[in-house]
Amino acid sequence: MSQSTAAPALIPFRHPSWRFLRVVASKVVVGVLTVWLASVVVFAAVEVLPQDPARVALGIESSEAQRAQFREEHGLNDGAAERYLRWASGIVRGDFGTSIVSGRPIADELAPRLYYTAILALAAVALSVVIGLPLAMIAARRPGGAFDTGVNMLTVSLSAVPEFVIGILLAWLFASQLGLLPLVSTSIQDGNFAALVLPTLTLGLMAVSYVYRFSRVGVIEAGQAPFIRAATLRGVSSRRVTTHHVLPVAGGAVVNVVALNAIYLLGGVVVVENVFSYPGLGTLLVTGVQTNDLPVIEAVAVATAALLVAINLAADTLDAAMNPRTRGATR
Q: How many domains would you assign to the chain?
């Protein structure tokens, strides 16, 4: 009997790597649609505000004729749909419009602010993982023990304190009393990375609680898996069980909590950046709100939404790559 040659052609598409790529591609599509939807919501929210951009740009002393000319020059008399399409297409090209207060391209100020906020968020996430994950690994050995209970109480108490209170206390101790660190963080623009320490400590300490609690649960669940108990009964050392078995299985939980941590930190960034005058997206957003600079507010909101989607996409991809069970579950 002759054998069919059609079946082998389908084999590559059944390979796990192809399934993995399809899952990642679908998440990218969902992420793009999410950012698009966020841009629509942001534009609509700004659209309904009882605020006249012409009056904000020209001042309350401007005449109606001057404001009418401003609206005409900037296309503000066009319909909402046309203005949204023009604004959204500009964002795709990297053009976020022009500030109605300074008259400068928003992208020129947004890019360095995004860079500094990314540095702060990454440093805070790294600090929270360096502190929280080892604590979770130790506590998971004896759930409910003295160490576990003590760390739980400490982290919950720490997470209950507002960010600005932690920031003020750290500034008082390390800047005012000890004089070890700068009180404000504007000098980071001149390459003084000591100005990054206090904001990082504030955000990182606030995030330790989340890393510890979620990682602890993931490690405990992984340690109770049947193959972990089997490895222990075979005489495998506890260190090897932890590094070769528990951590890879618990890696998905750790990755997810880091992603959630980063999302939480982006919310806290607004407060912490303004406490230390850190030149990031948070201070830019507050400045835009104070000056009623609507294009700046829109740009920061969309950039933040895109950053959140990128963090979630990276976490989902890394989770699927690390954990075969996750990859299999997402087929």
A: 1
Which amino acid belongs to residue 84?
Y
* DSSP SS3 for 98: strand
Phi and psi for 98 in degrees, rounded to 5?
-120, 140
What's residue 126's pLDDT? 86
How many C-beta neighbours within 10 Å does residue 289 have?
Answer: 13
User: Exposure of 77 by Cβ count < 10 A (0-12 exposed, 13-18 middle, 19+ buried)?
Assistant: exposed
Domain harbouring 232, CATH code = 1.10.3720.10
Q: Domain for residue 45, yes or no?
A: no
Distance between CA atoms of residues 23 and 266, nearest Å: 26
Separation of alpha carbons 153 and 159, rounded Å: 10
Give the single-character DSSP code of 192. Answer: -
Assess contact for 159 and 241: CB atoms under 8 A.
Answer: no
Two tokens, residue 287:
């400045």
Q: Which of 313, 262, 279, 259 is nearest to 117 (CA)?
A: 279
Is 260 within 8 Å of 207 (Cβ atoms)?
no
pTM strictly above 0.70: yes
- Exposure of 292 in the CB half-sphere (CA atoms within 13 A): 13
Name the nearest CA neighbour of 299 among 51, 34, 39, 35: 39
Q: What is the pLDDT of residue 239?
A: 64
Q: Give me the residues of the chain with pLDDT under 50, please.
A: 1-13, 325-331
